[in-house]
Structure formats: structure tokens, C-alpha cells
């Protein structure tokens, strides 16, 4: 078996670690379908450079085939339609949601709510998806989004979702000098008119807006920035090794992170899910990310090379992950020192797998 350490790929093959003899097994829990990166908005620092001019997309047959194949995994629970803007698929989105529902999977749509400019029209549109089986919706907004989608559209979509019985998240971008906050959603007069019982299905989340380069910085509130005082608060990444992403280029991503397209090691060309899962499940870097998360790995790398500049730069964990793969100093520190972490990381990974009910665990070597 080949044991791949992806930070070493194309860097120094002679330094690759010894293989783990027994296969690890991972449990995919979600499929993120990104049918297109086309979007009605063109937000600055968009993770996929989405804009209205993009045309590449996955055809419906490919989407349904991917859903069919992942549905065979007992651990698979959710299909999330995102992008880009998934509502641009029109009736094909309804068909895909209905198909996933027929396979016993929960479904979620991630959207900017452009389609809810008028409440009545938006309610009808969302109602068709609910009829198809949609159970969850995540609505994105904030200063960047509002340049293209009015805040009232977000409120219209949120109210419609609650009235239609959907589990509803509104994700609000965070920057240091932002205008729109989560409280602007929760205290909106129209939303307050929705019954308290229905509003229990609403979660308002605030997420740092991140740049798409590891050296760039977007001003964020100081309390959100990673440093030595708060790094212990961070846990393992719950996307890597659990979420597969089907991209508009018909490639498979190994997480649904915002910086995934910028990290070649996190996307593969093959469509054999079994091979993909086995390969990813024996990749130490991915295992390490799942156990410790990018923040702790980054801090550890800086302990090996104090010249690594990491404190006060990263508010979003996908930004920290980008640094792990793109900052030459970080890559070098990991490449030269990762062996000292292997035993501990693989032991905890094995314990996590055991808790998940995995039948095959890694064999640890002294």
C-alpha cells in the first residue's frame, strides 16, 4: 500500500514516510454538489471566483449518478447543493433534490437568496423545492453579498424558509468594519412577526470573510484572529475525510473548504469513490487535519520554525489550511518534523474511527 503524505507531494519523494500496512477506513457523511461556480453575485475574495459570466457546470445525469453512488455508503446522511449559486439550475435542482430524497438522504441548499426579491415569487420557488423534499437551507449575506443581493431578499427567503418548515441558517460575513451583523437579521421587524415556534428552526451564524491567498489579510476583530492564546480552543476539521465535493469540472474534492480549489492535494480527477476514500484515509496530512485541525498544526509548525508569521493573521480555518499547503516555511517545517507527531495523531485517529464504528483501524508502528 502507498501511504501518501500530501504536503510532500512533488517536493521531496525521498522523505516520504513508511507505509501503514493496514488500511484505514473513513466514513463519508456528506456530499457537497457544486453544479456550477456561476453566481448572480461577484463578491470580492469569493472562494471560487464566482460571477455571472461563468458557464461551466455539471449535467444533471452526472449529479444523479454521484448521488446514487454515495447513497450506498451507510454513513452518508446529507447532500448539500451549493456553488456558485445552485438555484440557477432551475427545475434540475428540484429533480436532484427529489432524487437524493428518494435515496433517504437529507438535502440542503446554500444560496444568496437572489430569487426572493419579491416575497410571493420567492415563496413559490422555495415551495417547489420543499415539495421535492428539501429539508435545510443556508442563506449567505453580509457586506460583500449586499452589493449584489438586497438585504430584503435575504429576509424574504428566511421568512419563507421558516414558514415552509425548513431548518434555516443565515450565515453573515464578518470583517472588522462591517455594516451588516447577525443581529440585523434576528431583530428585523418582519422576522419578529414569525411565530417563536417557527423561529426555533433558525440559526444565525457569523463567519469571517477570508482572502484567497495565505499572505493576504482582511481586517477582522482581534478576538477572532488565531494566536497562541486561543489556539487550544480549536478542534479537528470536521469536513476533511467526511465530506466529498463534486465540482463543476467533474472532479472530486476531499472537503468542502473555501480554499479547496487552491490546494491541488484536496481535489482529485478520478471518480472511483472507493479508491478516493481509501487513498484519503491513508494520507497522514488529511488524517492530521481531521484530528487536530489546521490551526493547531500551523502553531506546531511555528514552534519548529519561529520565523513563521502566523499570529493575528488567520480568522477562518480555511485560511489557516491554505497556509499549511502554500507557505514554504510551513511546508518545510512539516516536511522535516512530522514524524514526531505520527504516533499520537494516528492513535487518536484510530480512537475516533472506533467511536464511529469503523471495522478497519490503522496499525500503529513503534
Low-confidence stretches: 1-23, 359-366
SS-based class: alpha/beta
N-to-C CA distance: 19 Å
Rg is 21 Å
> Number of helical segments?
12
Strand count, sense and closure of the main sheet? 9 strands, mixed
Strand content: 5-15%
Compressed to H and E, one letter per element, the order equals EHEHEHEHEHHHEEEEHHHHH
- Average pLDDT figure: 89
Q: Widest sheet: strand order?
A: 6-5-4-3-2-1-7-8-9
Residues in helices, as a percent range? 25-40%
Give me some keywords for this one.
single chain; 366 residues; alpha/beta; nine-stranded mixed β-sheet; globular
Description:
- With 366 residues, the chain is α/β, with parallel strands linked by helices.
- It contains twelve helices and nine strands.
- The protein has a nine-stranded mixed beta sheet with strand order 6-5-4-3-2-1-7-8-9.
- Helix 1 (60-70) packs parallel to helix 2 and helix 10 crosses helix 11 (328-337).
- Mean pLDDT is 89; it is low at 1-23 and 359-366.
